[in-house]
């Protein structure tokens, strides 16, 4: 398989659509388990819209993330309204866009591209999806001090979302200390000195924190386990998860058993999808309905690989 085979798939998908159909899709690696297609297509159907959403998996075509540029060009030429972008393309895609939304520019990461005439505009709905999920799933939690585990794309999005929502201080931890320091520096530059830092002592940070957000692959079907020692959790520490396959990770299960307030990864996954849907169609989806549909979809056993829609 080659780049040309992926381009052929994009064109074939468009050729099968009826006139007036909103053409959308997802480009990324390992996206076979993604729940985005049924979420988008079912909501469109309920709104009376013709929409099709396809997966274009880089792994299936044996191509690298740098292929996202030519694939975007093919999709625009074929009449697509837009595409979701995930690992490993969220940063690579930046150089192939004509414009960025303010949040995408701040995060230097794009998960949604909308074609507006001959222009490709990049957006980031991960951070707002997390923030909306936190607000509705854990209303009223104390945001004074929050620890974020993971400084990748998901960690950057949730840290940005936390500070936008008014968190007093965010402390970032990552196995790559340099990456944590880089993210903390960028956050401090946007939100003010002292609002973000790279952590060095996880036990002390958790002990002083009001909340914990987990944004690493640990807990996925292929990477089971806890991302931190269970003894660091406590009943008055709220816990938010980004992983959503399985929906009840070991972290969610352990924190809940302690009596802590817990947010699973489902709301972030659904709300980022709802925002992308609105960008693609101009219609406002019923996010509550999408969340109920998502819950039904996740009752099936988790697949071997985590969908990459959020994590990268």
Short key terms for the protein model shown above:
6-stranded parallel beta sheet; globular; 2 domains; 6-stranded mixed beta sheet; Rossmann fold; alpha/beta
Characterization of this structure:
By secondary structure, the chain is an alpha/beta fold. The chain has 2 domains: 3-125 and 269-297, Leucine Dehydrogenase, chain A, domain 1 (Rossmann fold, 3-Layer(aba) Sandwich); 127-267, 3-Layer(aba) Sandwich (Rossmann fold), CATH 3.40.50. It contains 12 helices and 12 strands. It has helices at 3-16, 36-46, 58-61, 68-78, 102-107, 126-137, 153-164, 177-191, 202-208, 250-258, 266-281, 287-297; strands at residues 22-28, 51-57, 82-85, 99-100, 112-116, 119-123, 145-149, 169-173, 196-198, 211-214, 238-241, 262-263. The two termini are 24 Å apart. 48% of the residues are buried.
How is this fold's topology laid out?
Layout: H1 3-16, E1 22-28, H2 36-46, E2 51-57, H3 58-61, H4 68-78, E3 82-85, E4 99-100, H5 102-107, E5 112-116, E6 119-123, H6 126-137, E7 145-149, H7 153-164, E8 169-173, H8 177-191, E9 196-198, H9 202-208, E10 211-214, E11 238-241, H10 250-258, E12 262-263, H11 266-281, H12 287-297
Parallel strand pairs: 1-2, 1-3, 4-6, 7-8, 7-10, 8-9, 10-11, 11-12
Antiparallel strand pairs: 3-5, 5-6
Helix pairs in contact: 1-4, 2-12, 6-7, 6-11, 11-12
Q: What oligomeric assembly is this protein in? A: single chain
The gross shape turns out to be globular
Query: Tally of extended strands?
Result: 12
Instruction: Give the DSSP E fraction (strand runs of 2 or more residues).
Output: 15-25%
Count of helical stretches: 12
CATH superfamily of the largest domain: Leucine Dehydrogenase, chain A, domain 1
Query: How do the strands of the widest beta sheet line up side by side?
Result: 2-1-3-5-6-4
One letter per element, helices H and strands E, the order comes to HEHEHHEEHEEHEHEHEHEEHEHH
Tell me, rounded to a whole number, the average pLDDT: 93
Low-confidence stretches: none
Largest sheet: 6 strands, mixed
Helix content range of the residues, please? 40-55%
Class from helix and strand fractions? alpha/beta
